[in-house]
Write a structure and sequence with these properties.
119 residues, mainly beta, seven-stranded mixed β-sheet, four-stranded antiparallel β-sheet, 11 strands, elongated
């Protein structure tokens, strides 16, 4: 069984920082893209950032310059460093991992972690 465990969410004041982590365990296979998505109330889930196995990154325009995605391949873990947080960053954040095993691609999602930016 593959399990993704997220951590690091919480309540922070505007301008503050948080670091999210997502660790994958189990027979996940070869991990390709690792990413973070978020979903605010009454809004669709959107891509925040992703990172490929080669280290290439992509960010939503709304977080460029403030968020940094990174990964530790040895630990099957992806991180999201969030700085200069704004109230509009408030959402449930989900990690997503794309992996290949026995020639089949599978996408795995974390359980979500709440990030609330408020004074």
């Amino acid at each position: 069984q593959v399990q993704l465990v997220e951590s690091g969410g919480g309540l922070v004041q505007p301008g503050g920082s948080l670091r999210l982590s997502c660790a994958a365990s189990g027979s996940i296979g070869s991990i390709n893209v690792m990413g973070w998505y978020r979903q605010a109330p009454e809004k669709q889930r959107e891509l925040v950032a992703h990172i490929t196995s080669g280290g290439s990154t992509n960010y939503a325009d709304s977080v460029k310059g403030r968020f940094t995605i990174s990964r530790d391949n040895a630990k099957n873990t992806v991180y999201l460093q969030m700085n200069s947080l704004k109230p509009e960053d408030t959402a449930v954040y989900y990690c997503k991992i794309e992996a290949w095993r026995l020639g089949v691609r599978r996408d795995y999602w974390g359980q979500g972690t709440q990030v609330t930016v408020s004074s």
